[in-house]
Write a structure and sequence with these properties.
379 residues; L-arginine/glycine Amidinotransferase, Chain A; three-stranded mixed sheet; 22% helix; globular
């Protein structure tokens, strides 16, 4: 089918499900710690400090235990198979080859991760693929692994745009959000002042597709840094006359889809009623589903050296297969019951280590064909 995806809920026909092949580690460097800062600081787990004494902190790789990776691989395949069983065509990116261990540019190098959270570095708006400017160095070339999928849609008539790529030196990052949210005595190193580089150009666009929720011709966008704001300015100019952007500020550190999701026209899944108060006026009148607070028994027990990357609210990150059907983590019976009480059909799917790998069902997928069009839901 031709690329066509305008919203988060209309009947899903085609989707990309990410790949976890050859996931081995995370690299603790400035862009990684800045991106996950909210959850690294606020986690109930202890993280060893990265450095002691004065001077810049070195990058350090945090190895992921192989048993977690093997279970992740099983769960990702289960997600793909569930979607196929619901008559959705599933596309997959290229697997990261085991020989590819590093990303390198003239300005820096970093460990590489596979294209698992495919929602992040691509934004699908109608008939257009937009590759967004990455926020984490290790993911700089991630969309290269989606080229076979994008090429096929392009041949069928899709537009294909790549937003300006950042140099991503330390000076490229607006650190104000992380510095403002730091807690004295927190379990991680503070985000230090950037180190200089001959490639410094000041703040640059950095932005993820998962900072957007799509409502037909309207897009809700979360902005927490100057990097986000620059990217949204670019998007607004690029989309002028086709889409309307609605900015919300610091709803989260970056991604919006574990704070609010649109399940169907008129119904939002929100973390709290306070979140809804920050939304644009037209959305405040929609019905709100506030899920029960997650319990400790919803998650596996981890060891002190396991790096936790998401908040306990990650299971709000559901995927709508249609306006009445939702994929939900089978570890969350309270959330499933809540959605069923609001007349949704719940499809339970296993997803164990979402907190270790930074994503739920919405993150792990990129919907490329849905039935909906550029309707006006917010006027």
């Amino acid at each position: 089918m031709k690329l066509n995806s305008y919203d988060e809920w209309s009947p899903l026909r085609e989707v990309v499900v990410g790949s976890a092949a050859n996931y081995t580690s995370h690299e603790r460097e400035l862009s990684f710690d800045l991106f996950f800062h909210d959850n690294l600081v606020r986690s109930e787990w202890y993280y060893p400090r990265l450095s002691t004494g004065a001077g810049p902190r070195p990058a350090a790789r945090s190895q992921i235990k192989q048993r977690y990776v093997e279970e992740l691989l099983e769960d990702v395949e289960g997600i793909a198979e569930t979607l196929r069983s619901l008559s959705v065509t599933v596309h997959r990116p290229l697997d990261l080859h085991e020989s590819t261990t590093e990303v390198r540019t003239p300005a820096w190098s970093a460990a590489v991760v596979p294209p698992l959270n495919v929602r992040d570095n691509t934004l699908i708006l109608g008939d257009e693929i937009i590759e967004t400017p990455p926020m984490i160095r290790s993911r700089y070339f991630e969309t290269q692994l989606l080229k076979p999928v994008f090429n096929d849609y392009f041949r069928q008539g899709a537009r294909w745009t790549v937003m300006p790529r950042p140099l991503m030196t330390d000076a490229s990052f607006d650190l104000s959000y992380a510095k403002g949210s730091s807690k004295a005595g927190g379990p991680t190193e503070p985000i230090e002042d950037p180190q200089s580089s001959p490639y410094d150009v000041g703040f640059e666009m950095m932005f993820d597709g998962a900072q957007c929720l799509r409502f037909g011709r309207d897009i809700l966008v979360n902005i927490s840094t100057a990097n986000h704001a620059m990217a949204v300015d670019w998007l607004e100019r690029h989309l002028e006359g086709r889409f309307r952007l609605h900015r919300v500020f610091q709803l989260s550190d970056s991604h919006i889809d574990s704070m609010v999701l649109a399940l169907r026209p008129g119904t939002l899944l929100v973390r709290s009623k306070e979140v809804a108060d920050q939304l644009p006026e037209p959305l405040r009148g929609w019905d709100l589903i506030v899920p029960p607070a997650p319990g400790a028994n919803n998650f596996p027990a981890y060891e002190d050296d396991d790096l936790i990357l998401t908040s306990p609210f990650i299971d709000m990150n559901v995927l709508s297969v249609g306006p009445d059907t939702v994929l939900v983590n089978d570890a969350c019976p309270e959330l499933m019951r809540t959605l069923e009480q609001h007349h949704f059909t719940v499809v339970p799917v296993r997803h164990r280590h979402r907190r270790l790998f930074g994503g739920g069902f919405h993150c792990f997928t990129l919907d490329t064909v849905r039935d909906g069009g550029p309707e006006d839901y917010l006027s």
